[in-house]
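Put briefly, the fold is written as integer tokens. The lines below illustrate.
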Amino acid sequence: MVEEGDHAPEFELPDQDGNTHKLADYAGKNVVLYFYPKALTSGCTVQACGVRDRAGDYGAANAVVLGVSPDAQKRLREFADKENLNFTLLGDEDHSVAEKYDVWVEKSMYGRKYMGVERSTFVIGPDGKVKSVFRKVKPAEHDELVLGALKE
């Protein structure tokens, strides 16, 4: 389980345009790494639009926001375009990074059990250590929690 004070697990993932991003690319900055279940769904849209609308606040906190889901590049691009998202979306199709961060979990809906992404956010400091962990985040509360943690 990734917890506060741990070194954040390294990753390498493609974004909505096919460009590769690594955690090491953002050394010296705060990184808001948020995992969401599925692009173009209601909760994920609320969360993403909150980040979009608070871009200035994240910038003022020297923070880069990276949204991670198991979606394919084409779906990520569609999501970014439809909602005018101004931050990077990363595709973790094999959920290997979600597994590293312990957010690939068993879920249940209408009595059916399946594996999926637990909506969780990791605030990673400029030194690569996890500063804050927010699990089972409510989309509408995400930005207040994360921006509060960045001010600490």
User: Anything to note?
Assistant: Residues 69 and 143 are 18 Å apart (CA to CA). Strands lie at 12-14, 20-22, 30-35, 63-69, 88-91, 104-109, 112-117, 120-124, 130-135. The first helix runs from residue 42 to 53.
